[in-house]
Please model this.
Amino acid sequence: MNWKVTIKLDLKDLAFLNSLWRNWSIKPPLFLRLVFPGTAWQEKVTEKKVFLTFDDGPIPQVTPWVINCLKEHGMVATFFCVGDNIRKHPDVFQQLRDNGMGIGNHTYSHKKAWRSSKADYLLDVDLYSDYYRANIFRPPHGQLYPWWIKDLKKRFSKIVMWDILTMDYDVKLGANDIVNNVINNVRSGSIIVFHDSIKSMPRLQSALPIVLDWIKKEGYKSALFSS
Ligand SMILES: [Zn+2]
Model:
Protein backbone atom coordinates (compact mmCIF):
# COMPACT_ATOMS: atom_id res chain seq x y z
CA MET A 1 0.00 0.00 0.00
CA ASN A 2 2.94 2.27 0.52
CA TRP A 3 3.48 3.06 -3.12
CA LYS A 4 0.05 4.70 -3.30
CA VAL A 5 1.04 7.15 -0.61
CA THR A 6 4.28 7.87 -2.41
CA ILE A 7 2.58 8.58 -5.72
CA LYS A 8 0.05 10.86 -4.04
CA LEU A 9 2.81 12.85 -2.38
CA ASP A 10 4.79 13.04 -5.59
CA LEU A 11 1.84 14.44 -7.52
CA LYS A 12 1.22 17.00 -4.82
CA ASP A 13 4.88 17.99 -4.86
CA LEU A 14 4.80 18.26 -8.61
CA ALA A 15 1.82 20.61 -8.55
CA PHE A 16 3.54 22.67 -5.90
CA LEU A 17 6.78 22.80 -7.89
CA ASN A 18 4.86 23.70 -11.03
CA SER A 19 3.19 26.67 -9.39
CA LEU A 20 6.50 27.69 -7.83
CA TRP A 21 8.28 27.47 -11.19
CA ARG A 22 5.51 29.44 -12.85
CA ASN A 23 5.89 32.26 -10.34
CA TRP A 24 9.65 32.13 -10.65
CA SER A 25 9.38 32.29 -14.41
CA ILE A 26 7.28 35.43 -14.42
CA LYS A 27 9.54 37.24 -11.96
CA PRO A 28 12.78 35.32 -11.36
CA PRO A 29 13.94 35.50 -7.71
CA LEU A 30 17.28 37.05 -6.77
CA PHE A 31 19.08 33.77 -6.15
CA LEU A 32 18.24 32.55 -9.65
CA ARG A 33 19.62 35.80 -11.07
CA LEU A 34 22.83 35.34 -9.09
CA VAL A 35 23.39 31.85 -10.54
CA PHE A 36 24.25 33.53 -13.86
CA PRO A 37 26.79 36.23 -12.98
CA GLY A 38 27.35 38.90 -15.61
CA THR A 39 23.92 38.52 -17.22
CA ALA A 40 21.32 41.32 -17.31
CA TRP A 41 17.95 40.79 -15.59
CA GLN A 42 17.06 44.44 -14.99
CA GLU A 43 18.79 47.52 -16.40
CA LYS A 44 20.13 50.26 -14.20
CA VAL A 45 18.31 53.44 -15.17
CA THR A 46 17.89 56.92 -13.78
CA GLU A 47 14.48 57.60 -15.35
CA LYS A 48 11.29 55.59 -15.83
CA LYS A 49 12.24 53.26 -18.66
CA VAL A 50 11.32 49.73 -19.63
CA PHE A 51 13.03 47.40 -22.08
CA LEU A 52 10.46 45.64 -24.24
CA THR A 53 11.74 42.50 -25.93
CA PHE A 54 10.24 40.06 -28.45
CA ASP A 55 11.72 36.61 -28.96
CA ASP A 56 11.69 34.01 -31.74
CA GLY A 57 10.76 36.07 -34.86
CA PRO A 58 10.90 37.57 -37.35
CA ILE A 59 7.86 36.03 -39.03
CA PRO A 60 5.45 37.67 -41.51
CA GLN A 61 2.31 36.63 -39.59
CA VAL A 62 3.21 38.46 -36.37
CA THR A 63 6.31 40.69 -36.50
CA PRO A 64 4.95 43.43 -38.83
CA TRP A 65 1.85 43.68 -36.62
CA VAL A 66 4.07 44.10 -33.53
CA ILE A 67 6.14 46.79 -35.28
CA ASN A 68 2.95 48.71 -36.16
CA CYS A 69 1.59 48.41 -32.65
CA LEU A 70 4.88 49.75 -31.22
CA LYS A 71 4.94 52.59 -33.74
CA GLU A 72 1.36 53.59 -32.91
CA HIS A 73 2.45 53.95 -29.28
CA GLY A 74 5.72 55.68 -30.16
CA MET A 75 7.75 52.84 -28.66
CA VAL A 76 10.75 50.74 -29.57
CA ALA A 77 11.69 47.18 -28.63
CA THR A 78 14.53 44.72 -29.01
CA PHE A 79 13.86 41.63 -31.08
CA PHE A 80 15.84 38.52 -30.16
CA CYS A 81 15.58 36.89 -33.55
CA VAL A 82 16.10 33.27 -34.51
CA GLY A 83 18.75 33.20 -37.24
CA ASP A 84 16.83 30.70 -39.35
CA ASN A 85 13.85 33.10 -39.38
CA ILE A 86 16.11 35.94 -40.58
CA ARG A 87 17.24 33.65 -43.40
CA LYS A 88 13.63 32.75 -44.31
CA HIS A 89 12.16 36.25 -43.93
CA PRO A 90 14.83 38.82 -44.79
CA ASP A 91 12.19 41.40 -45.77
CA VAL A 92 10.51 41.17 -42.36
CA PHE A 93 13.92 41.42 -40.70
CA GLN A 94 14.61 44.53 -42.77
CA GLN A 95 11.38 46.09 -41.46
CA LEU A 96 12.78 45.76 -37.93
CA ARG A 97 15.94 47.57 -38.97
CA ASP A 98 14.10 50.24 -40.98
CA ASN A 99 11.95 51.04 -37.95
CA GLY A 100 14.88 51.44 -35.57
CA MET A 101 14.23 48.33 -33.48
CA GLY A 102 17.03 46.64 -31.53
CA ILE A 103 18.27 43.26 -32.71
CA GLY A 104 19.69 40.46 -30.57
CA ASN A 105 21.09 37.00 -31.25
CA HIS A 106 18.81 34.16 -30.05
CA THR A 107 20.88 31.42 -31.76
CA TYR A 108 20.37 30.21 -35.32
CA SER A 109 18.00 27.31 -34.59
CA HIS A 110 16.57 28.21 -31.16
CA LYS A 111 19.06 25.83 -29.59
CA LYS A 112 18.50 24.52 -26.07
CA ALA A 113 21.70 24.81 -24.04
CA TRP A 114 20.78 21.98 -21.69
CA ARG A 115 20.53 19.58 -24.60
CA SER A 116 23.70 20.66 -26.38
CA SER A 117 27.43 20.42 -26.07
CA LYS A 118 29.15 23.76 -25.68
CA ALA A 119 30.83 23.36 -29.09
CA ASP A 120 27.52 22.69 -30.89
CA TYR A 121 25.82 25.53 -29.07
CA LEU A 122 28.49 28.08 -29.94
CA LEU A 123 28.46 26.92 -33.58
CA ASP A 124 24.73 27.66 -33.67
CA VAL A 125 25.29 31.05 -32.03
CA ASP A 126 28.00 31.86 -34.59
CA LEU A 127 25.90 30.66 -37.54
CA TYR A 128 23.42 33.44 -36.68
CA SER A 129 26.24 35.95 -37.11
CA ASP A 130 26.47 34.97 -40.80
CA TYR A 131 23.10 36.72 -41.19
CA TYR A 132 23.45 39.58 -38.75
CA ARG A 133 26.15 40.57 -36.30
CA ALA A 134 24.26 41.40 -33.12
CA ASN A 135 26.12 42.45 -30.02
CA ILE A 136 23.57 41.29 -27.47
CA PHE A 137 22.41 37.73 -26.82
CA ARG A 138 19.53 35.93 -25.13
CA PRO A 139 19.68 32.15 -24.62
CA PRO A 140 16.56 30.29 -25.86
CA HIS A 141 14.31 29.17 -22.96
CA GLY A 142 16.66 31.04 -20.63
CA GLN A 143 18.80 27.91 -20.61
CA LEU A 144 22.46 28.48 -19.90
CA TYR A 145 25.36 26.99 -17.99
CA PRO A 146 27.11 29.57 -15.80
CA TRP A 147 30.46 28.28 -17.06
CA TRP A 148 29.52 29.09 -20.70
CA ILE A 149 29.04 32.77 -19.94
CA LYS A 150 32.66 33.72 -20.53
CA ASP A 151 32.56 32.21 -24.05
CA LEU A 152 29.43 34.21 -24.83
CA LYS A 153 30.90 37.37 -23.31
CA LYS A 154 33.73 37.13 -25.87
CA ARG A 155 31.09 37.46 -28.58
CA PHE A 156 28.54 39.80 -27.02
CA SER A 157 28.62 42.92 -24.88
CA LYS A 158 25.51 41.83 -23.01
CA ILE A 159 23.64 38.62 -22.19
CA VAL A 160 20.01 39.61 -21.64
CA MET A 161 17.74 37.55 -19.38
CA TRP A 162 14.48 39.06 -18.06
CA ASP A 163 12.77 40.82 -15.19
CA ILE A 164 9.26 39.90 -16.37
CA LEU A 165 8.25 36.92 -18.48
CA THR A 166 4.75 37.71 -19.75
CA MET A 167 3.98 34.00 -20.41
CA ASP A 168 2.21 35.08 -23.62
CA TYR A 169 2.95 31.63 -25.10
CA ASP A 170 0.89 29.83 -22.43
CA VAL A 171 -2.32 28.63 -24.10
CA LYS A 172 -3.95 28.20 -20.69
CA LEU A 173 -3.73 31.94 -20.05
CA GLY A 174 -5.95 34.73 -21.32
CA ALA A 175 -4.90 38.16 -22.56
CA ASN A 176 -5.87 39.53 -19.11
CA ASP A 177 -3.26 37.33 -17.43
CA ILE A 178 -0.57 38.65 -19.76
CA VAL A 179 -1.57 42.23 -19.00
CA ASN A 180 -1.57 41.50 -15.25
CA ASN A 181 1.81 39.77 -15.38
CA VAL A 182 3.24 43.05 -16.65
CA ILE A 183 1.37 45.63 -14.61
CA ASN A 184 1.78 43.74 -11.33
CA ASN A 185 5.54 43.43 -11.76
CA VAL A 186 6.84 46.34 -13.82
CA ARG A 187 9.43 48.75 -12.39
CA SER A 188 12.08 51.08 -13.80
CA GLY A 189 14.63 49.12 -15.78
CA SER A 190 12.35 46.09 -16.22
CA ILE A 191 13.28 43.81 -19.11
CA ILE A 192 9.96 42.42 -20.38
CA VAL A 193 9.71 39.32 -22.59
CA PHE A 194 7.04 38.84 -25.24
CA HIS A 195 7.15 36.51 -28.25
CA ASP A 196 6.47 37.42 -31.87
CA SER A 197 5.35 33.87 -32.54
CA ILE A 198 2.24 32.18 -33.95
CA LYS A 199 1.63 30.53 -30.59
CA SER A 200 1.62 33.82 -28.66
CA MET A 201 -0.35 35.86 -31.19
CA PRO A 202 -3.89 35.06 -29.89
CA ARG A 203 -3.00 36.58 -26.50
CA LEU A 204 -0.51 39.17 -27.77
CA GLN A 205 -3.03 40.71 -30.14
CA SER A 206 -5.31 41.76 -27.28
CA ALA A 207 -2.73 42.20 -24.53
CA LEU A 208 0.03 44.22 -26.23
CA PRO A 209 -2.00 47.38 -27.02
CA ILE A 210 -3.36 47.40 -23.44
CA VAL A 211 0.11 46.91 -21.94
CA LEU A 212 1.63 49.66 -24.10
CA ASP A 213 -1.21 52.08 -23.23
CA TRP A 214 -0.78 51.30 -19.55
CA ILE A 215 3.00 51.68 -19.34
CA LYS A 216 2.73 54.94 -21.29
CA LYS A 217 0.06 56.24 -18.93
CA GLU A 218 2.30 55.32 -15.97
CA GLY A 219 5.02 57.52 -17.45
CA TYR A 220 7.42 54.84 -18.67
CA LYS A 221 9.42 55.27 -21.85
CA SER A 222 10.65 52.34 -23.91
CA ALA A 223 14.38 51.99 -24.44
CA LEU A 224 16.90 49.91 -26.37
CA PHE A 225 19.90 48.28 -24.70
CA SER A 226 23.09 50.26 -24.80
CA SER A 227 25.98 48.14 -25.95
ZN1 LIG B 1 13.04 31.83 -27.71
